[in-house]
């Protein structure tokens, strides 16, 4: 995805109740809109049960999300069906965020610039030993979160970001990698995030046996 493409086409297509809800959260962070699968979308993410269910939509790249644990051979089948990336129940919310960023942008710097200008989602920031504060999550990848806040914290300080996804709080645990007054914090994520399977199981209508 080029810089021009990322800036001009700010749509992600999503199918499946759980996936659509999670993608809506991540899209808001990055400054994108979510709708049904669309050949003009920058990316289409599909919740599917089997490789035969993958449906390519025009030339838009497709990511398959399967809310059960996959065997290696199954992953190959999903890729052969046309999925650019395949995530199963063991993948985390930050894994999904990483796929979104990697597919939509030419590098993390472009993703950050785009999110600062057009994105952001309210979160609660909980520094270790300090009072919680409201903040705005403006970029999220597999390993890094960028938060807009007036709070000033020392480098290396432990911090938790509480992000609401699918109606449930998802804690992002990390340590401060950089802090710039008037701009916010960069947080290096150091603990595994909640898995997609767990997020699906929290909704009894979407519980999936593994």
How would you describe the overall organization of this protein?
This protein is an alpha/beta fold. The chain has two domains: 109 residues, Rossmann fold (3-Layer(aba) Sandwich), CATH 3.40.50.2300; 75 residues, predicted glycosyltransferase like domains (Thrombin, subunit H), CATH 2.40.10.220. The chain is built from six helices and eleven strands. Helix 2 packs across helix 4. The radius of gyration is 17 Å and the shape is globular.
Could you give a short description of this structure?
The chain has two domains: 3-111, Rossmann fold; 119-193, Thrombin, subunit H (Beta Barrel). The protein is 28% helix and 32% strand.
Radius of gyration: 17 Å
H-E order: HEHEEEHEHHEEEEEEH
CATH architecture of the largest domain: 3-Layer(aba) Sandwich
Given this structure, which CATH class of the largest domain is correct? Answer: Alpha Beta
Give keywords:
about 210 residues; alpha/beta; Rossmann fold; 2 domains; 5-stranded parallel beta sheet; 11 strands; disordered C terminus
Give me the secondary-structure topology.
Blueprint: H1 3-8, E1 11-15, H2 17-30, E2 33-35, E3 43-47, E4 62-65, H3 72-80, E5 85-87, H4 93-104, H5 108-118, E6 121-127, E7 133-140, E8 144-148, E9 158-165, E10 168-180, E11 184-189, H6 196-201
Parallel strand pairs: 1-2, 1-3, 3-4, 4-5
Antiparallel strand pairs: 6-7, 6-9, 7-8, 8-11, 9-10, 10-11
Helix pairs in contact: 2-4
